[in-house]
Amino acid sequence: MTLRTYLVVLVLVALLPVLLFSAIVLGLVAGSEREATERGLRSTSRAVASAVDHTVDKTIGALQLLATSELLDAGDLPAFHAMAVRALDAHHGWLSVAVVDPRGRQLLNTLRPTGSALPPPADAQTVAAVLGTRRPAVSDLLDGDLPGRAHVVVAVPVVRGGTLSGALLTALDAEIFTRVLEGQQLPRQWEALIVDARGTILARVPEPQRFVGRPAPPGYPGLGRQRDDVP
Fold this sequence. Notes:
alpha+beta; 5-stranded antiparallel beta sheet; 26% strand
């Protein structure tokens, strides 16, 4: 599961997948400014990749720390619910925290009162990925379970003594990725997009409200090469 970041200047493109985030840069610029423009795009794409990496890694790290809580070991879900609600206040962009068991059944969700009957997780694919691999996972763009709040699910396994106990998930507001792009202070004539693995726009500057949730323009995924191929 990856997200891909696109920086666009005319037909100049840089792609950035999430988690390991390979940056992709292809410059199509006429004239003597081509090399300088390419160098600038390479530098900018790496800066954006690093910023998005940092955002996702910070979320994963915070979830992993929360997953070590002894309240989970004791099965004290009401007390963990209260702790998870406090975590929402401490982490900008977190919309909810959920706990699932090793079978993927939802045990707790901060969107519901403690003890409520809970439906299956809205993003079963990401839950299956984190439980199956015992590695963190990041979803594509979602909004069905949180109407009007486009987000991605970040999930980490809960492991005790080598045994899988379940997983911990947060819904991460997609707006946080738009803030990442805005923080790069890109030239006003540039467009920058973060696109998920399905080609859906997750974040964009300018005018994110118009484009988030829409398909990326046709042909963008075909332009470029991975950062490992870029000197």
